[in-house]
Write a structure and sequence with these properties.
By secondary structure, this protein is an alpha/beta fold. The chain folds into two domains: about 150 residues, Rossmann fold (3-Layer(aba) Sandwich), CATH 3.40.50.1980; about 80 residues, 3-Layer(aba) Sandwich (Rossmann fold), CATH 3.40.50.1980. The chain is built from ten helices and nine strands. The strands form two sheets. It has a five-stranded mixed sheet with strand order 4-3-1-2-9. Strands 6-5-7-8 form a four-stranded parallel sheet, with helices on both faces. The N terminus is likely disordered. The protein binds zinc ion. The site of zinc ion (ZN) has 7 residues, from loops.
Length: about 290
């Protein structure tokens, strides 16, 4: 038998829910994983409806990598029901919830105390915008990959640890650059950038949405603009797919600097790239440090 055929058959088939998670698992797993990304970063991952062209990826996957904390609740359960793959169904052996063990911003005060109509019923799920959390996930992914492929446990341990250390080195390098941002304030359209702001040492001064997932009412925006003016908020952050017009007006009236930041990596169906995460964070840092006009 051709030894290459045996090697190729051992490659672990994985589906990941977002661009960031696809990148982290591809980076942690190297050439021993095949990753299919389920979402698309051209739309809000909260509201993504799912495509019909995943082919056999969902049926053959031995591992599902998900963000958790209800982040994918509006679309992923439907795909999993259709796939009928016990390995990646709820409680399956091949489910990795990246949120396990994370310290959360904005956790619900009491179990079930928040309305499920809110897109963040279990607390702010955008924890991967803090690069220190991505380091944690690279390491726990390495362990999970080794559990699923015990014969490649050593390979995954080395690969994921190397990736984690590379990202830690990047973070150390960024600390000096981001120093001028410390103590400055921001408002973001959706609370998707609060972990990023917290890592930068910045102060959140509210969000555009009246509740996560709810478009702002004009009266809410008027009050927010007044508040931003009063508190001299430095930045207004918005992702490219959000409605831009009202943000431009609020930024103009409040004199906040409007900046377009991303909260996910471009998702390719067949995710064959790796090591995109640090470039993605760096681009956001560059955007913030750019001189205003
Ligand atoms: Zn959200």
């Amino acid at each position: 038998m051709n030894p290459n055929a045996v090697w190729a058959a051992a490659v672990l088939p994985i589906v990941a829910s977002t661009g960031i998670l696809s990148d982290l698992v591809k980076t942690a797993g190297g050439d021993q994983v095949q990753v299919t990304c389920l979402a698309t970063s051209t739309l809000d991952p909260h509201l993504y409806s799912g495509r019909n062209d995943y082919g056999s990826a969902l049926n053959q996957a031995e591992l599902l990598v998900q963000n958790g904390l209800a982040y994918e609740n509006t679309w992923l359960p439907v795909l999993l029901t259709k796939a009928n793959n016990p390995k990646i169904a709820a409680q399956g052996t091949g489910v990795f919830d990246a949120s396990e063990g994370m310290t959360l911003l904005d956790p619900p005060k009491k179990e079930g105390a928040r309305a499920w109509a809110d897109l963040h019923p279990m607390g702010d799920p955008h924890y991967l915008m803090d690069p220190r959390n991505a380091v944690k996930v690279l390491r726990t992914l390495g362990v999970k990959l080794g559990e699923l492929r015990p014969e490649q446990k050593a390979y995954f341990a080395v690969q994921s640890e190397k990736a984690a250390r590379q990202l830690e080195a990047k973070i150390r390098g960024w600390q000096k650059r981001i120093k001028p941002l410390e103590g400055k304030s921001f408002v973001s359209y959706h609370p998707s950038l609060n972990y990023f702001g917290a890592w930068l040492g910045m102060r959140p001064e509210g969000v555009f949405e009246s509740r996560p997932g709810f478009a702002p009412e004009p009266s809410f925006l008027r009050a927010l603009t007044d508040q931003m003016k009063k508190k001299r908020v430095t930045y207004l952050w918005i992702e490219p797919w959000r409605p831009q017009a009202s943000a431009k007006i609020v930024a103009q009236k409040s004199k906040a600097r409007l900046r377009e930041l991303s909260s996910d990596i471009q998702c390719e169906k067949e995710y064959v790239k790796s090591n995109q995460y640090s470039g993605f964070i760096e681009k956001n840092i560059d955007t913030l440090l750019r001189k205003f006009n």
